[in-house]
């Protein structure tokens, strides 16, 4: 069913151009990742009113004051994680599910947590439509991670935090990797976090701007 949807997709040419120009052309060379992003129909994870912008090099509104990140940022974050089929992945900030869908083509299983039930429900509907069965969607405060299914081999956070939330560090498996935007509400830097022999090592990747991570481990709502 997935291949039939891909073959009959009117956005196929735009998606391939996205992969070649926005991703490969900007230094993303992981062929498994490029293949996943060439397969996953990004437009299915965007409201109808913005669907024509699905493959443009920019974020797109998805409701609830949230956005879907530009394709390059999604690719850069996933590339830094070095995901394999043996990995259990936690995503914080499901949105309408695009990044989780891409991760599901690479990982063994993806657990994704979203604070807005409306977005989580929409994401679940698209996953079912496309036949993506290795994704578990949970509604809750993602700033605390998701302890029910921990530990995770990889964690990706799709919202900006003032600091790296401690629960996520505790839920990261030995040898694991996490990527998270950290900084002020206005501007952040993508940080790669690695856990080795119980110690945490961080490195800065590139500047970025995300919507705020709200909740116990994020920014208080009154700041926005």
Can you offer a commentary on this structure?
By secondary structure, the protein is an alpha/beta fold. It is 29% helix and 27% strand. The protein has helices at residues 2-7, 12-23, 31-39, 71-81, 98-104, 117-130, 166-171, and strands at 60-63, 66-68, 88-92, 109-114, 135-139, 152-157, 172-183, 188-196, 199-208. A 7-stranded mixed β-sheet has the order 5-4-3-6-7-8-9. The chain has a two-stranded antiparallel sheet with strand order 1-2. α2 (12-23) packs antiparallel against α3 (31-39). The chain is globular.
Task: Give the SSE map.
Blueprint: H1 2-7, H2 12-23, H3 31-39, E1 60-63, E2 66-68, H4 71-81, E3 88-92, H5 98-104, E4 109-114, H6 117-130, E5 135-139, E6 152-157, H7 166-171, E7 172-183, E8 188-196, E9 199-208
Parallel strand pairs: 3-4, 3-6, 4-5, 6-7
Antiparallel strand pairs: 1-2, 7-8, 8-9
Helix pairs in contact: 2-3
């Amino acid at each position: 069913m997935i291949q039939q949807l891909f073959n009959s997709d009117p956005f196929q040419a735009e998606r391939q151009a996205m992969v070649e120009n926005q991703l490969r052309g900007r230094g993303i060379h992981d062929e498994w990742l490029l293949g996943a992003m060439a397969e996953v129909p990004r437009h299915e994870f965007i409201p109808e009113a913005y669907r024509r912008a699905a493959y443009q090099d920019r974020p797109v509104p998805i409701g609830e004051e949230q956005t879907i990140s530009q394709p390059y940022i999604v690719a850069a974050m996933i590339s830094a994680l070095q995901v394999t089929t043996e990995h259990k992945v936690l995503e914080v900030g499901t949105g309408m599910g695009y990044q989780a869908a891409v991760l599901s083509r690479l990982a063994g299983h993806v657990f994704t947590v979203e604070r807005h039930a409306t977005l989580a429900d929409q994401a679940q509907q698209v996953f079912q439509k496309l036949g993506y069965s290795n994704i578990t969607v949970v509604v809750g405060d993602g700033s605390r991670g998701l302890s029910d299914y921990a530990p995770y081999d990889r964690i990706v956070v799709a919202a900006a935090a003032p600091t790296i939330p401690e629960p996520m560090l505790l839920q990261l498996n030995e040898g694991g990797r996490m990527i998270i935007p950290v900084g002020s509400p206005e501007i952040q830097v993508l940080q790669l976090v690695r856990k080795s022999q119980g110690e945490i090592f961080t490195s800065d990747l590139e500047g970025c701007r995300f919507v705020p991570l709200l909740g116990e481990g994020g920014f208080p709502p009154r700041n926005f």
